[in-house]
Amino acid sequence: MVEAIINGLGGLIIGFQTLFVDWRNAIMLLVGFLLLYLGIKKDCEPLLLVPIGFGCILVNIPLSDVMGPEGFVRVIYEAGIATELFPLLIFIGIGAMTDFGPVLAQPSTFLLGAAGQFGIFLTLLLALALGFPQLDAVSIGIIGACDGPTAIYVTSKYAPHLLGAVSVAAYSYMSLVPIIQPPIMRLLTTKKERETVMKPVARPVSKTTKLLFPLVITILGGLIAPKGLPLLGTIMLGNLMKESGVVARLTKASENEIANVTTLFLGLCIGATMVGSAFVKADTLIILCLGFIAICLDTVCGVCFGKILRVMTGGKFNPLVGAAGISAFPMAARVVQKEGQKWNKKSYLLMHAMGANAGGQVGSVIAAAVMLSVLAGMGIIR
Amino acid sequence: MDNFTFGLTMLICGMGGTILTLWIMSLVMSLLGRLFPEKPKKEEA
Question: Partners of B37 in the beta sheet?
Fold first, then answer.
């Protein structure tokens, strides 16, 4: 009887006995708290960092079984991450929330969205040079898409062991765009360039064009890069629902309930991949550094492309707009507007930047789709 | 395939493919804009 009681009580303290057996779990518990602090106190992507931080804490408590074969997070992971379903559901919501009007009013801004993807491929080269395996390098490079769901989609498929590091890097740097971009924009442009006033975009876009846009992009993109069709198709489905105006309930559900539930599960699963033994290693730090470089390179290439457009238009283009050609929508556009206003109170770059930013949104998905199709063409993936 | 060849192929085909795809899309969007321009709203009598 007494022995049974002692054994029973022993079961209650076994967790404390193993608390510091693996120091990496203790570090990751602190990382979990740091993510929660950033999300709650600093308002830094709280919708993601709070579930990620909590998932990180859950999985690093000694003897935690949440990611065990029958653990509840493992069940969610297998259902939504391993199947790549969650990023796609989020993309429907993103499509339903995004207004592609500014990019349709000025289709040439699509090209700014392309320039903002250079970071993906240059970072891939860097990762390869640092000795990462080819598919790991692809997943690291995709951080440069500045697009969380795309990064998760590609990484969960081809380098699931890097999912935690890549996701945290992608979302953290996305939220740091207002801090990372302005110094680079100032460094690469002259005062005269930054002060350039651009004419407002006056061309209205018809409803027919807005309705045909998602359909044409899906078919065209699907023909060119079929491996990325799930990414492109879901974002365009959301946009078609929004622009059609006849399925308001579905649109509302996509951008609210579905996106919210998926974000919660996605964050929890990402956090749960950050188990100490797999996360606390030099490679994670290198991935975080490479992710930072990727976002910087995106901005550098975007601004440089803006400078080329300035030359081509005889000085009428403000190169700051080029920095908005990334997927962080609409944050990057706001950064450009704020920076432009700082140098010239008469400069209103927002609509131009929104066009480039919407182009960046499509551009990041196209870049990932093209990348996957090139990999398939090379026989590296099936 | 060695890493150098792989990286260079990805850079050329990947970035080239992305630019080309987005350029084609911008052309198609321009065409759509011309084919279906916004009609001015008729003023009510």
Answer: A205
CB-nearest to B26 from A110, A203, A224 is: A110
CB contact under 8 A, A217 and B25: yes
**Interval A143-147 mean pLDDT:** 89
**Smallest Cα distance from B45 to chain A, Å:** 23
Give the torsion sign (CA, B37, B41, B42, B43).
negative
| SS3 label, residue B43 | coil
Looking up tokens 């403000």, which residue turns up?
Answer: A318
For the cut 90, the answer to whether the pLDDT of residue A6 exceeds it is no
Residue A255 has pLDDT above 80, yes or no: yes
- What residue has token string 């740097």? A173
Assess A165–B contact: CB distance below 8 Å, yes or no: no
pLDDT at A198 over 70: yes
Measured distance CA(A146)–CA(A247) in Å, rounded: 30
Task: Note whether A132 and A273 are within 8 A (CB).
Answer: no
Distance from CA of A128 to the nearest CA of B (A): 6
Task: Write out chain A residues lying below 8 Å of B27, CB-based.
Answer: 107
pTM for the structure as a whole: 0.89
Query: What is the spatial distance between Cα A126 and Cα A140, in angstroms, rounded to a whole number?
Result: 10
**Of residues A134, A225, A375, nearest to B21 (C-beta):** A225
> Tokens at residue A376, please?
């398939």
| C-alpha–C-alpha distance, residues A90 and A382, integer Å | 25
B2 at interface of A, judged by CB pairs closer than 8 A = no
Whether the CB-CB separation of A180 and A296 falls below 8 Å is answered with yes
CA distances to A81, A175, A180, A283, B16 from A165, in Å = 15, 16, 19, 9, 28
CB atoms within 10 A of CB A94: 23
* DSSP codes of every residue in A14-57: HHHHTTTTSHHHHHHHHHHHHHHHHHHTS-SSHHHHHHHHHHHH
pLDDT at B44 > cutoff 80: no
Mean pLDDT value across chain B: 88
Q: Residue A27 above 60 pLDDT? A: yes
Q: What is the percent of chain A with per-residue pLDDT over 70, rounded to a whole number?
A: 100
